[in-house]
Design brief:
The protein has about 475 residues and is an alpha/beta fold. The protein has 3 domains: about 5-145 and about 260-325, 3-Layer(bba) Sandwich (FAD/NAD(P)-binding domain), CATH 3.50.50; about 155-260, FAD/NAD(P)-binding domain; about 340-445, FAD/NAD-linked reductase, C-terminal dimerisation domain (Enolase-like, domain 1). It is about 30% helix and about 25% strand. The strands form 5 sheets. Strands 1, 2, 3, 4, 5, 6 and 17 form a 7-stranded mixed β-sheet that branches. Strands 8-15-9-10-11 form a 5-stranded parallel β-sheet, covered by helices on one side. α1 (about 15-25) links the parallel β1 and β2. α1 (about 15-25) packs parallel to α8. The longest helix has 21 residues, at about 80-100. It is globular, with a radius of gyration of 24 Å. Belongs to the class-I pyridine nucleotide-disulfide oxidoreductase family. It holds the Pfam family Pyr_redox_2. Its EC number is 1.8.1.4. This is Dihydrolipoyl dehydrogenase.
């Protein structure tokens, strides 16, 4: 039996795992990184990038079909095969770019196998070898959850792992799950001429709740019915029959986007002695990524905390550095929470609202905002949260191009800026960003801050 000795063993060669191995090696650790497929990152292969390619195609078709409001008559001719060919061609380019990073890892450190724990410092590999490490990083990612009753649909069942390999656009599509990914793909396919309906057992849409969710659904194209708070069943036949309460409809395909669960099966976490939560995910410190006091760290989608790429990179970096330095584990400062749904309008949620009496809230609308009216996208809102001194703590955006304003607020929150500080910054005219002034002024008023008369107006005395 061959035994490999190293300082840090990383399980999983996705975004978090690659970052963990790189930072551990840069810290001087002897590393190995273990992955059965070495297929590339989730983002490039089945996540961020192919979905944005499909969204871009849908946006192009929508721009043509909605040009009449500008006095331009046009009808899009959508060639589904060509759409999917572009998605796959550029997707493969992105995947190949991520695979090039594999070359930076010493060949002796790359292992094609699965791993399971035999102790807190030891792993058994599917190729028969054993690994002994001073510290281990779990970065196995996540896998799509298939609800009960949907696993018998055969090739009519699509997930984010298969939908981008379609040779042509589906004739019709039921989307199960109204989260960010489900809504992004639902809208993209609808804009490309596919009949789409969305179903969800909960009441959240693209991460929005309550009245915010209702407002967002109202802004979507009326051709996308969204059914919330419904129990959904599927029956296979010539087409798939979807039943949700009294509603019944037939579709050529069903896209399941009901969430992703940490891919921890087969690791034998019991052998590692780790304490886990009710879902079987190891309990860990979000500032160090360490699982309890064990020489084990967990990063990326595997820990089910913040399942987005930039967080996976950050968590992997922290996990790798701390694994290399173990037992000298250091706490890191977490980035401001930032999540974006690339729908139209976009949805962004930034930061964490303060609790209790210290919280202040103000809103702004884009329904009559100048630049939004010019572009034909006059809809949306922003809700800002601050503490009692006017420091911005969180923002919920549902508006055109929210991704840009989201970064503006992430920076402001990190820097501890107040609403008054932001009003002192230049905001160019005419831009969508101007629309946030009302909310900033509302925070100032709610906090009884002294606001010079020219803040937010752009005028100076004497103009």
């Amino acid at each position: 039996m061959t035994e490999l000795d190293c300082d840090v063993a990383v399980i999983g060669a996705g975004t978090a795992g690659l970052a963990a191995e790189r930072h551990a090696r840069q810290a001087g650790a002897r590393t190995v990184i273990i992955d059965p497929a070495w297929a590339g990152t989730t983002c490039a292969l089945v996540g961020c990038m192919p979905s944005k390619l499909l969204i871009a195609a849908g946006g192009a078709a929508h721009a043509v079909s909605s040009a009449a409001r500008f006095g331009i008559e046009a009808t899009p001719m959508i060639h589904g095969e060509a759409v999917m060919q572009r998605v796959q061609r550029l997707r493969d380019d992105f995947v190949n770019s991520t695979r090039k990073s594999f070359d930076d890892i010493p060949e002796s450190a790359r292992i094609a196998a699965t791993a399971r724990f035999t102790g807190p410092n030891t792993l058994s590999l599917s190729d028969g070898r054993q690994v002994r490490a001073k510290a281990i990083v779990i970065a196995t990612g996540a896998k799509t959850i298939i609800p009960k009753g949907f696993d018998g649909l055969g090739d009519r069942l699509l997930t984010n792992e298969t939908v981008f390999d379609l040779k042509d656009l589906p004739a019709s599509l039921a989307v199960i799950g109204a989260g960010p990914q489900g809504m992004e793909l639902a809208q993209a396919f609808a804009r490309l001429g596919v009949r789409v309906e969305v179903f969800d057992k909960g009441g959240s849409v693209a991460g929005l709740q309550g009245d915010d969710a209702d407002s967002f659904v109202a802004m979507l194209e009326p051709s996308i019915p969204v059914h919330l708070n419904v129990d959904v069943s599927a029956e296979a036949g010539d087409e798939v029959t979807i039943r949700a309460g009294d509603h019944e409809a037939r579709f050529s395909h069903v896209l399941v986007s009901a969430g992703r669960a940490p891919a921890l099966g087969g690791l034998d976490l019991t052998a590692a002695g780790l304490e886990v939560d009710d879902h079987g995910t190891p309990l860990f410190d979000k500032q160090t990524m360490q699982c309890g006091r064990a020489p084990i760290f967990i990063a990326g989608d595997a820990n089910h905390d913040r399942a987005v790429l930039h967080e996976a990179t950050s968590e992997g970096s922290v996990a790798g550095a701390n694994a290399a330095a173990f037992p000298d584990v250091r706490r890191s400062r977490r980035k401001v929470p930032l999540a974006i749904a690339f729908t139209h309008p976009q949805v962004a949620q930034i930061g964490t609202p303060p609790e209790g009496d210290d919280s202040r809230v103000a809103e702004a609308s884009w329904s009559d905002q100048g630049r939004a009216r010019v572009d034909g996208h006059a809809h949306g809102f922003a809700r800002l949260h601050s503490d009692g001194e006017g420091r911005i703590c969180a923002a919920t955006l549902c508006m055109p191009d929210a991704e840009h304003l989201a970064h503006y607020f992430a920076l402001a929150i990190t820097a501890g800026m107040t609403a008054g500080d932001l009003l002192d910054q230049p905001i160019y005219h005419p831009t969508l960003e101007e629309g946030v002034k009302k909310a900033l002024q509302g925070i100032c008023a709610a906090c009884a801050l002294k606001v010079p008369w020219d803040r937010g107006t752009g005028f100076q005395p004497g103009d």
